[in-house]
Amino acid sequence: MPESAARLRRKNPILRTRQPTLPPASRSRVALGLTAAAARGRFALQVCLDCGTVQYPPREICRECLSHRLVWRPQDGRGELVTETILRNAQELFFRERLPWRIGVVRLDAGVNVIAYVHASVGRAPGRVRVEAALDRAGQAALVAVPEKGRPDLADDPKLRELTCDPRGRKILVTDGKTSVGQAIVRALLAADADLVWIGEAEPWKKITGLDVLRDLPRATIVPLDVTDGRSVQELAGEIGGKVDVLINTADHHRTFSIASRRGVETAQQEMDVNYFGLLRLAQAFAPVLKARAADEPANAIAWVNLLSIFALANYPPHGTYSASKAAAFSLSQALRAELRPAGVRVINLFPGPIDDEWDQLEMPPKLSPAALATAVVKAMKGSVEDVYPGDVAQDWVARHLDNPKALEREAGEGAR
Amino acid sequence: MSVPAPYDDVVLAAPVTVRYVRYSTKAAHWFLGRAVAGLIAAAKVPKARIDGLAVASFTLAPDTAVGLTQHLGMTVRWLDHVPMGGASGVVSIRRAARAVQNGDAEIVACIAGDTNHTDSFRRNTSAFSQFSQDAVYPYGSGGPNASFAFLTAYYMRIYGAEREDFGKLCVAQRNNALKNPLALFKKPLTLEQYLDARPVADPLRLFDCVMPCAGAEGFLVMRRATAEELGLRYVRLLGAIERHNAFPDDPVQYRGGWAIDRDALYAQGGVGPEDIDFLETYDDYPVINVLQFEGLGFCREGEGAAFIRANTFEAEGSFPFNTSGGQLSVGQAGAAGGHLGITEAIRQLTGEAPGARVANARHGLVSGFGMINYDRGVCSGAVLLAAA
Amino acid sequence: MKGAKKARPKKSEPKKNRASESRAKPQPNDLHALLRSALTSGRVQIVDLTQTLSPDFPPIVLPPDMGQSRPFRMEEISRYDDRGPAWYWNNVSFGEHTGTHFDAPIHWISGRALPNNSTDTLPVDHFIAPACVIDCSAQARDDADFLLTVALVKAWEKRHGRIPAQAWVLMRTDWSKRTDLVAYQNLDETGQHTPGPDPDCVRFLVKERDVLGFGTETIGTDAGQAAHLSPPYPCHYYMHGAGKYGLQCLCNLDRLPPTGALIVAAPLKILQGSGSPLRVFAIVPARRSPAWIRTAGDGERSGRARSPRRQVHHRATQRGHGRKHDERGL
């Protein structure tokens, strides 16, 4: 038992487990543009291409010149908190359980009013603020007013902590601690004050030095987990599932073959068995118990993090079968997100570009170091995002993909044989 | 300033109230149908003589005025469904008046009503408008209480009003209501009780908020000749205004659309604020009363608090106001909240008010307001009425 | 019912008893009766030499750049539930060389052109064959890289007689008693460290003794460090090159006599198969020693409780060797 067991908060076992509730989830389609930007950690509003007027709430037609040419543009969010209130009464269960609740009206410099949560560090209205877009437990965009200067952590305000998946005080399962990425993530989680990290280890007879070092860390414990073996996954879920607050799936089988460069499907089957079916096995075993604990006390299940790849968005033919397996995992993660959303458990996907490890050895820099990727994971959890593209290559690819996916398909395929 | 054509001999008659209850298992159709029944009984006309119908209701959905014609077996040559919340009564009058004035209809029934189930308020609020669904309700689901808390806090800050000022209005309305047999609130209210009541959304507390209930209001619009033929007491329509989405660039709503058109209203009616014997405002929250005092010219913008401190608001006071008790003390029967003041004004001007009576009432002003589509009430309007 | 006939009591017959049954002479060609009577009387035992096929059982580890042999995996199809209300069954997947398995000559490059070299074409009469069990357990305990030499084989033959042609040679190391998977695989930065035969030994067994094949308790017939022998993987190279077979991940070799056991090892009949997991067991003459336990199919890695011992008296079944048999080395 790790040292920290003595200081871990314990649940009173005779009390009924609280059930999850969500803030109001329905939005019009056009309002989902706000959610799309918030999912990537951005605050964006519609701007009219013809007259430049900024629009809010989201709409179909420019409120000034009636043009239909509205596009989403990032906003700096600066403005004035003009009025506020503290709710003592609410009509939805989610807010009833969390009263009192502070909200305000911000007049943005951009010329629109937004209603927003107000961070505890913001002084009483009137005053200058900056508005950010976060994701709420229903997976929708939530605007938050923070002080104009400085960037407080959302989690510092206990009311707003639920916008984040802050690892502090959480028990977290990292499904594969054998890879350099897995190990870096374990370290980063412990540095971010996770209460306990379970480190999954498959094939214990293959010894990895880095893992042995982690074995001795307090607040870390190695558990057997082979995502290709349904029984292994079920058994671990049975054993620790009722305590897991966050599951980070680092299991990754990465080989570097195109269609032609490897005969037979054995390698591709392995990639699928780990990257896609592994996720499916984990989801079948752990998702139900995460949902059941989504409002548990003193700590609740809050997030599922997948390490995908930027190649899930657009196939990288030199690693063609690997890309396909990550794309399959990406698609499945969207299904998982839909199944976990009703309980308020967030699915966070990271899409890194090449990592500085043995399988991307021949990729040209820039490459993401395992430590940098681990930092991105923790940052995503402390923030309020669900789609993360860490590193220069990932940022470049996603920009190209959003701009013109067919062009990216051609560009990624250059040099393939 | 352009003044619209006068309303000639358009009159209002037959004020009907379907008694309010806190909760009902009946549908809105019941309350609206009973209102129509009350109207034809009061006017002693066969149902077929009513050839125009204007309806306002939230809980009639998915039906509108259209469904109601079949439900109630009415064949009309003029039909309107008015989705403007507390401004629906005033707007119904504006529509119906021009119709009867020009012969498009002879007798228009203006009715408003709603049922109220235990979850009606939440259902109505959670899907109130697209902007509300996308940009308001997810932030605390506080409903209109949150929206008006914003307004009240802002008004208090920029103009220095105090809670005691609003409380004075609420206490006066309650005093009026105590004499009104139709009011749901029967107990007196002191200023201390108002100030110390349970907080709802700072700075609003319990007695700043209306109590939603089930009920209906109705009245008839016709030409004077018709009213006299039927032997009905009536009031004359002197003027009417409406304005929607006024002052969209105000950061917070601290003034309402009446300010834009009130001069035209008084010009149309040939009277001034000093001639008004009583005012029935749309009072879903006290701060809106103050916006109506200012907007309708009873005091200058920003001076509402001073105006309140300088006056008394009971029916026998220096400024008779919400003489039935208003929504805050009678109850808010959904969309009928904006018709409440109209039926009360008709009763005051025909000497038939069941509760407190304003002595020598010759001119009355009824104001409507409503529909927090996003962050402010979009609709506003007012009618100027005179005794026969 | 009217037409029913009453059962007539049989005329009394002498009661048959077990003793008289066993004394009754079975017909020479009544194999089943022969075996059954031998089993019933305890003169013969069946010893299971097979590890349970389970997802936990480690597969052979190849460098990650190479194609990998799959470990055993099970996916449940249904279990008396909505997927199948009255039945339980699984889809299983494994490599041909997963768990306790048989290697056919086609498995190695040296045997690829031989006739009848795949699991579907092997001569069926090779599936029952005698075994010579060479005990290297002490040496393997002291040295994980222990290599069986010609000298040791000859020393064994001096005690137990010449290895007959077309017999299995099984290298007992008690490696199967390593229930800790890490110890079983015994990998470090220089690779796997498990015992096996040296090249001379293999050549000797193939050329001078014409064995049927070589069997081990470890994950390969070759030693864990056999890549560094000359030629690399000599057991695979020479055995399969000569049309001989391999058996791996055996267990319970410590329950076999040095000679006299009959091995039943029939791989799955896979089209062009290079090998397959199989149920391999030994038919063994029973021994006088109380260490012998009369059960079948237990005692492998799971370490379950053993059934109570039973004293059984047997006649020596080793033909022509009236020698003493001690408990261990036999």
What does this structure look like?
The complex is a heterotrimer of chains A (about 425), B (about 400) and C (about 325). With about 425 residues, chain A is an alpha/beta fold. In chain A, about 30% of the residues lie in helices and about 20% in strands. Chain A has two domains: about 30-165, no CATH class; about 170-415, Rossmann fold, CATH 3.40.50.720. In chain A, the strands form three sheets. Chain A has a seven-stranded parallel β-sheet with strand order 11-10-9-12-13-14-15, with helices on both faces. In chain A, strands 4-5-6-8-7 form a five-stranded mixed β-barrel. In chain A, α5 runs parallel beside α7 and α6 (about 265-275) packs parallel to α8. Chain A is globular, with a radius of gyration of 22 Å. Mean pLDDT of chain A is about 95; it is low at about 1-5. Chain B is α/β, with parallel strands linked by helices and about 400 residues long. In chain B, about 35% of the residues lie in helices and about 20% in strands. Chain B has helices at about 30-45, 65-70, 90-100, 120-125, 130-135, 145-160, 165-175, 190-195, 225-230, 260-270, 285-295, 305-310, 325-330, 335-350; strands spanning about 10-20, 50-55, 80, 110-115, 200, 205, 215-225, 235-245, 280, 365-370, 375-385. In chain B, the strands form two sheets. Chain B has a nine-stranded mixed β-sheet, with helices on both faces. Chain B starts with 9 loop residues before the first strand and ends with a strand. A nine-stranded mixed β-sheet of chain C has the order 1-15-13-5-7-11-12-4-14. Chain C has helices at about 20-25, 30-40, 135-140, 150-160, 180-185, 200-210, 235-240, and strands at about 45-50, 75-80, 85-95, 100-105, 130-135, 145-150, 170, 185-190, 190, 195, 215, 245-250, 260-265, 275, 280-285. Chain C is built from seven helices and 15 strands. Chain C is globular. In chain C, α7 (about 235-240) links the parallel β11 (about 215) and β12 (about 245-250). Residues about 290-330 of chain C have low confidence and may be disordered. Chain C has a domain at about 45-70 and about 95-285: Glucose Oxidase, domain 1 (3-Layer(bba) Sandwich). Chain C has about 325 residues and is of the alpha/beta class. The interface of A and C includes residues 228, 232 and 264 of A.
